[in-house]
Amino acid sequence: MVINQILKNYIWELFIPKGKAICLSNKYFYITMIINDLKGTVQLSNGVSMPCFGLGVFKTQEGSEVENAVKWALEAGYRHIDTAAIYRNERGVGNAVRVSGIPRNELFITTKLWNDNQRNDTVMAGFEESLGLLQTDYIDLYLIHWPVKGKFTATWKVMEDIYRSGRVRAIGVSNFLQHHLEDLFRIADIKPMVNQVECHPYLVQQQLIDFCHAHHMVYEAWSPIMRGKVNDIPLLEELSDKYHKSQVQIVLRWDLQKGIVTIPKSVHQERIRHNADIFDFELSAEDMDLIDKLDKNHHFGAHPDNFTF
Ligand SMILES: NC(=O)c1ccc[n+]([C@@H]2O[C@H](COP(=O)([O-])OP(=O)(O)OC[C@H]3O[C@@H](n4cnc5c(N)ncnc54)[C@H](OP(=O)(O)O)[C@@H]3O)[C@@H](O)[C@H]2O)c1
What we know:
Blueprint: H1 2-15, E1 22-24, E2 32-34, E3 41-43, E4 49-51, E5 55-56, H2 64-76, E6 80-82, H3 90-100, E7 108-113, H4 115-119, H5 123-134, E8 139-144, H6 152-164, E9 168-174, H7 178-187, E10 194-198, H8 206-214, E11 218-222, H9 234-243, H10 247-257, E12 261-262, H11 269-275, H12 285-292
Parallel strand pairs: 5-6, 6-7, 7-8, 8-9, 9-10, 10-11, 11-12
Antiparallel strand pairs: 1-2, 3-4
NADP nicotinamide-adenine-dinucleotide phosphate (NAP) binds next to helix 11.
């Protein structure tokens, strides 16, 4: 641990160009994330650049709600939107992207294959439907939403076919624990490039983060602000006073400094702007550790080994 910290400081001093912040993951040096501003990216194992901060749209209504949220996010400088087939708002995401006038190649759109398509062996059909609703020629990142038992390895082979067809720039998984990933590695020709997992101060799963980074998989946090509940954590209130930033901003900054991509959701313009205002301060190593220590291994969402949907 001490050696890692020394190495980390050493690299910080030697290689960081003035005015830039490059985040190295705690234990391994495979993930390098540039976190200067909303345009900051992390490089996936296939060389594709993924913006390290995005807008989540779970529970955002199809139609004007999602269209406005994406519009405000893009206006605020976000370039990464995270949706899923099961959110039933891909058409609205596609509409907002289309009318934004922003060149498609400057945006990063993630969507996810729903579990029923795995159970019914309709992976390709699920993909085609998402592509159509999003009204785009390609998806930047396509994820298996949950590790459906007995199905996800076969699903992965179809994901690889979709990737080879050139209609997705990257493929990955979501809600995969280490044992799911090890099962996948046994049959995979292409390793997942991203694992999107529930991740916040009460569910850190540092071993899983390290495992993913060691295999050059980007770790991406869902429910990063515990659906607003980070505002109830006393330590974060103290840090909020210290850094003159809100609890939400402290936690989103903690994600980036850990080398984790983060995708907070909001449907309010003010919050969409506020959540992204995290590029003008830096948490100390000691405060990073204090936030790590809040971990309770607590899932607010379903557990990847016994979800029922
Ligand atoms: N792969 C998966 O299985 C999975 C599962 C869940 C989520 N996700 C993805 O991850 C994204 C984020 O996760 P999430 O939506 O579950 O939770 P989250 O981002 O942790 O929290 C969203 C909630 O916090 C509120 N909020 C946003 N900004 C706030 C602020 N500054 N102060 C106080 N409250 C604030 C939002 O309300 P308002 O909207 O009213 O502002 C919303 O109720 C999702 O949208 C989705 O894209 C993926």
